[in-house]
């Protein structure tokens, strides 16, 4: 078995510098490690080397850490990194993506590359302080090799085999997040019934809910703090954890989806306290995931209604509104299918859940190029499909627009 990673000889690659990733990468630098970082939106960490691409970031790394937003982002970034991965390297996946995504990653990675799933409990301040709880799952040899490095982030709890850390994280979040939503609805009920909120919190503080009450009291009394655990990420966790036994978690997820539709996705999860006091749940939810470029404000990327997810037509425009891959049907098709995959993943779906796909092409003679890309993404039994040729799309240079309808399992 290869030796454990040391602080001097081995280089660590850190992919993802968001709210959690940046302070965690900084902890590694401060602990004396050689670190190369990459982020989709260019960012730097003092003392670390900044790479221009995932493949460049991992090229010399023995240990690769990912801390990204969702399963689609992790799959996409590791696919981009794959050409640079060294045989014998270990990937430590620290995002919250669930055991199914971990298993899919294992299938996609070369057999000579190790994989540990190690999501964390804790928010931004514990990430800065090195007091996170790391829930690690993997083969014994892979866990042993990265145990010392994971200790830089906080207490390491080795849960079991591959996927066990990811499963444990979702199980824990299925209790923690709904508990906050329940408390938010309790406070809203108290206010509507004329109960003094401060007194209500004092009474609840004397029960077994006391620790949670004191943790969220500042947000109730003063409004949500700076984002520590994003509300949209809490929704993502509950979507990933969807299971027929979790009726309370499903209700909490729906409450948070309403808050996200009201524009609170980027706020701290405690923003649900203010939302619960004023909002009425809607049977139709408008969705605009942060994982894809924003719309122009005249439409939503998707809507949920009943058991269906309706995804708006996606085109090859980058976040700045510039056409991607002008004149290249394959490039535009890849970009569009990637956007669809991210929107589906935001609601816990994959292309396997798609019931109908509608495609608009400006040149039907290029159908085969689009079809080859589509087959790489839709690998199972294909859904119902409509493909039409149009004279033009709404922006010059666009060659393709694709929309889908997907079925949401009853527990989601």
Automatic annotation (TrEMBL):
This is 3-hydroxyisobutyrate dehydrogenase. Signal peptide: none annotated. SUPFAM superfamilies: 6-phosphogluconate dehydrogenase C-terminal domain-like, NAD(P)-binding Rossmann-fold domains, YjgF-like. One of its GO terms (molecular function) is oxidoreductase activity. GO terms for biological process: organic acid catabolic process. Residues 12-155 form the 6-phosphogluconate dehydrogenase NADP-binding domain. It comes from the Bacteria. The lineage of its organism: Bacteria, Bacillati, Actinomycetota, Actinomycetes, Streptosporangiales. Coiled coil: none annotated.
